[in-house]
Automatic annotation (TrEMBL):
This is TetR/AcrR family transcriptional regulator. Keywords: DNA-binding, Transcription, Transcription regulation. Residues 1-26 are annotated as: Disordered. Residues 1-12 have a biased composition (Polar residues). It comes from Mesorhizobium abyssinicae. It holds the Pfam family TetR_N.
Length: 210
């Protein structure tokens, strides 16, 4: 007799949770991701995996045990960058005046863009092969920016008519700027110019960060 399919009321076998890494293995993994993010931002997605392993002070075999393919490493780095950027928004909002938090976050956004530019080729590939990557991260960055913009507008330290989506669009222009040696410095100056525009006409004066 053929097996009948399980009904919706019957319990399905639970998927075993991944086994947690030992403390030393977790440290190695975290260090690899940190070094890879810096390497991809500087050298692009073709950065040497052997050099990443060397700078993380592990063997190349350890890298491949944690990240079987370059695309797997790219995905983890990208998720880490999104998570760090969103967490920074919360920390900066807690520790600084609203407009200062916004400006400091936008400067961190430049670092995020630098890494994303380095990952661009692999991210395009992942877009077609990994539907969960972008569905998981979509909107998180824009929501973080929206909270910062709304808080600064409510505090009267930037213009009240600012739309967060317009700010994100302006920041997005940094992504498409030519990759010249002074790209990062020039991008930082553009953020300052953008903040000058946001502060112009604000109802409450606020001293910018040094």
């Amino acid at each position: 007799m053929a097996e009948r399919p399980p009904t919706t009321t019957e319990k399905q076998p639970a998927t075993p949770a991944p086994k947690p890494l030992r403390a030393d293995a977790q440290r190695n993994r975290d260090k690899l991701v940190e070094v890879a993010a810096q390497a991809f931002a500087t050298d692009g997605v073709d950065a040497s995996l052997e050099e990443i392993a060397r700078q993380a002070e592990v063997g190349i075999g350890t890298l491949y045990r944690h990240f079987p393919t370059r695309e797997h490493l790219v995905e983890i780095v990208y998720r880490r960058e999104v998570e760090a950027l969103c967490l920074a928004a919360e920390e900066l909002a807690r520790d600084h005046p609203a407009d200062v938090a916004l400006e400091l976050w936008m400067q961190r956004f430049v670092d995020y863009i630098a890494t994303k530019r380095g990952l661009a080729t692999s991210l395009r590939i992942l877009l077609t092969t990994n539907s969960t990557l972008f569905s998981d991260t979509s909107g998180r960055v824009s929501q973080a920016l929206k909270r910062l913009v709304e808080a600064a507008a409510a505090a009267g330290t930037i213009r009240a008519d600012v739309d967060a989506s317009d700010v994100l669009h302006a920041l997005g222009g940094i992504y498409s700027a030519p990759n010249t040696p002074d790209w990062r410095d020039r991008s930082g100056r553009l953020v300052k110019l953008l903040m000058d525009g946001l502060r112009f006409g604000a109802t409450k004066a606020s001293k910018p960060p040094r």
